[in-house]
């Protein structure tokens, strides 16, 4: 099997998703998940894997992710790695590819596999994984290095744990190899690809569950 040429992409590990922001992550525990993100950055650096830090950035008058605001800043544990990042990106849409130069940069670097960590499972992670499919990039998602929020609106409601676990199963069924950061770190050291499921297999197993 061909050894993946990976890049770890940390999406929006910003203060907006923590205690002072309007979108605090509810599941998994946000302090635990950001600690896993920090460990994944270290693993990537030790393995020579490029690390991309992404920040969502909106105009200064925006209610969230306002440019230059305290909640626009990366979480301190991630900000400590800003100087070590191979690349930093500002984005305005859910997908890390929309309106950025990430695709061209990945191709220039010979990257064929992106590993996604960061926030939120229910927005930028799933949007980025779906956007990678037509571009031909393989996707990995670190289930313990991302997180979701409780959701309720006119269409229904779902607690963060249900949102996160459902989307992990959905991603693994088609768009991404979903795993925990420890398993991913082992794959980094061995150079092995991570397997995902597929819709037919997931559907069959779902009927049998």
Automatic annotation (TrEMBL):
<dbReference type="InterPro" id="IPR050272">
    <property type="entry name" value="Isochorismatase-like_hydrls"/>
</dbReference>
<dbReference type="InterPro" id="IPR000868">
    <property type="entry name" value="Isochorismatase-like_dom"/>
</dbReference>
<feature type="domain" description="Isochorismatase-like">
    <location>
        <begin position="8"/>
        <end position="155"/>
    </location>
</feature>
<keyword id="KW-0378">Hydrolase</keyword>
<dbReference type="Pfam" id="PF00857">
    <property type="entry name" value="Isochorismatase"/>
</dbReference>
<dbReference type="InterPro" id="IPR036380">
    <property type="entry name" value="Isochorismatase-like_sf"/>
</dbReference>
<protein>
    <submittedName>
        <fullName>Cysteine hydrolase</fullName>
    </submittedName>
</protein>
<dbReference type="GO" id="GO:0016787">
    <property type="term" value="F:hydrolase activity"/>
</dbReference>
């Amino acid at each position: 099997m061909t050894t993946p040429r990976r890049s770890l992409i940390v999406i929006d590990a910003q203060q907006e998703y923590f205690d002072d922001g309007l979108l605090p992550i509810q599941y998994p525990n946000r302090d635990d998940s950001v600690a896993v993100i920090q460990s994944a950055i270290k693993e990537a650096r030790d393995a020579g894997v490029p690390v991309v830090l992404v920040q969502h950035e909106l105009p200064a008058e925006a209610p969230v992710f306002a440019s230059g605001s305290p909640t626009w800043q990366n979480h301190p544990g991630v900000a400590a790695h800003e100087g070590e990042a191979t690349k930093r990106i500002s984005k305005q849409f859910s997908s890390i590819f929309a309106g950025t130069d990430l695709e061209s940069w990945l191709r220039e670097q010979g990257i064929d596999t992106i590993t996604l960590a960061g926030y939120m499972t229910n927005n930028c992670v799933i949007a980025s994984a779906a956007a990678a499919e037509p571009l031909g990039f393989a996707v990995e998602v670190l289930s313990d290095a991302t997180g979701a929020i409780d959701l309720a609106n006119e269409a229904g409601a779902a607690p963060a744990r249900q949102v996160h676990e459902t989307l992990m199963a959905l991603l693994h069924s088609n768009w991404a190899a979903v795993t925990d950061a420890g398993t991913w770190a082992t794959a980094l050291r061995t150079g092995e690809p991570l397997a995902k499921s597929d819709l037919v297999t997931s559907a069959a197993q779902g009927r049998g569950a």
